[in-house]
# Entry
Amino acid sequence: MRRALDPATFTPFFKRRRGGVFCEGVSLEKIAEKVGTPAYVYSRAALEGAYRGLDRALSNALGSTPHTICYAVKANSNLTVLRVLARMGSSFDIVSGGELERLRRVGVDAGRVVFSGVGKSREEIVEGLRAGILLFNVESPAELEILSREASRMARRAATSIRVNPDVAAGAHPHIATGRKHHKFGVDWEQARKLYLTHPKSKWIDWQGIGSHVGSQVLSLTPYRQALAKLASYVRDLAAHGVRLRYLDMGGGLGVRYTSERPPIFAAYARTLASQTQGLGCHLLIEPGRSIVAQAGVLLMRVLYTKQTRGKVFVVTDAAMNDFIRPALYGATHPITTVTEDHHGKKMRNVAIVGPVCETGDVFLDSWQLGEVVPGDVLALWGAGAYGSTMTSNYNSRPRPAEVLVEGKRVHVIRKRESVGDMMRGE
# Structure
């Protein structure tokens, strides 16, 4: 049995007080009544607070070394979320032409965009060149060849970096570890070095940087230290051979607390980056996603039924794995609590919290302590701001949920609930 946690005690801008759980100045239960469930709810203050905290920590630790935060769009790509971060001064890391178009829609200058991804299509490369993005993170010799050919055809020099696979173990689950030699991402150093030195003064490839990415939900600073030490040695090696790079891109998703995790604080993370990069003469790029948005969001769901089968209690909700897939896909544990004041402190019982999708894996939590609930009660799944809405699907022909942004006491619907008609449009 897992002990029930109340993330309202450690999640910024979500607090339990008289009247239940509040996002900033608005009751989550009132939001559920207004927009229905399932629904994602984000705190603007939490988004802005996380971004400012990370940026401040980097400025304090890096001193004169310039840095740029390139928010990983894949974590949460809602246009309003992107607009909030853009106004904070964020740059962006993308992995598809669709993400580039999202940034264009909210007015982000392409010069603030780094294009990563192991499988960029020719069309996506052309889109990036036409837009004039800051940097292409190339992940194979074949991709470099296409980039060079298209840059030549368009008579545009392509600002280019190579993603080097550091063979460093990191990430809380095998599916989100990206930096080992058997993973699909990046190229090994010997191959990358050959590419840099074979085309040192290419007419169409403008060598601007080098990068790496160690994984997601990283809870230790050791992988960053190891990968950065390697990248720093590569930068020095290339400089000795006449290839001087402007950018060092240290990708990797700093972990967050969902239950009992103890991720590094921003200040410690920033000091680790500084210890390996100062004196290199490089502009540091980082690619956070989860650490900016995860704790800024919750997924609201409503109890449909409770039932007991052979001594096991099931709480069936109107949210399912198509609305939030991380527990089914990664075995991720996200606390779920009641949001009403009168339920807090009620007698706890051991339950399985499940969705209505016809899959045995449609389980949010098993053997979880929850106060007694009845049909109609509203529950909150915590830490849903990252890799929640972006990974939704229409499995079982279920429309995608609404998304809401809270600003103080104001509630804005930033994505309407999908209708059955929306879902079938285009078929």
